[in-house]
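Quick start: read one record
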Amino acid sequence: MPFCISRKKTRRIRVGTVPVGDGAPISVQSMTNTKTDDVAGTIAQIHRLTQAGCEIVRVAVPDLAAAEAILQIKKAIAIPLIADIHFDYRLAIAAARGGADGLRFNPGNIGSDRNIRALVDCARDCRIPIRIGVNAGSLEKDILEKHGGVTAAGMVESALRHAALLRDLDFHEIKISIKASDVPRTLDAYRLLSQQTDLPLHVGVTEAGSLYSGIVKSALGIGSLLAEGIGDTLRVSLTRDPVEEVRVGYEILRALDIRHRGPEIISCPTCGRCEIPLFDIVDRVEKALLTRTTPVKVAIMGCVVNGPGEAREADIGIAGGCGVGILFKKGKVIKKFPEAQLVDVVLEAVDAFERQHAGQMGEPADN
């Protein structure tokens, strides 16, 4: 029986050209780690993120120089840009007037209701949405005292209190995130929040860590929520090149059969039966296909036990051994070839698949 996810019904907003909520595709976000006032460096990183599939990008706005840089950055990029604000609401106003497509503020440090009113008035004038971004590490003091520390219920109270404030100000273009650095508390918070609001939710595990721990936490946290139908847009947080965040985000969506972008590479973990340099082959193929967007399943297998069967299940597959490779397409053996040609044969087969797919879709192949 196919895996089926029933998504929670939420309101729809728009972040620039990207719809969020109410059944819109779950969008993949990231955040630059350049200094925002390094305009050239920030633009270059956003271009790399865009090429990797990032659909919404966030930049830090710690000072006026960063806020003023948004005007130049926006002119040079093709995806919506969100300004990330902490402590000083005036930076949000400057960023919005510079062309930001959305604002994110942290209830724990943005200050008084008067500050929020000024921020909301500006967002309304600029016709851009606001994300209420609750972090477990920066909850308001009264909530910490009430709940005896950082709890899922306290995080939800913070989010809903500020959502109510924005709605009382007749502002409704809102989404919420409610993140902790541990998976159980993140799950509890989002589940509780989802029961109490129809606002679109940005999901993620904050400060998830380095590559391995961050991927595991994000896959478990984000993946569990998405499997339950919770979440309208996501960001994977890694102490890494943010391009890796985008790749992991799409892999989570692919694993749940929610969205498919670019090649999916299936390869065996290797054992004593492996007769080809599989690590090297897979690495070379993966790097060569990083920027491809056409969904295609590619199997690269290293022995005769599971190799042929897995290769036959893929759009394109090779099974190698004893100095020889076999190419499969849609379950049919196409040809045998020398082991030294494995990478070239796979890439040529992907090129052909993309040309055929583009022809069927009436679009040029994206190579």
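The radius of gyration is 23 Å.
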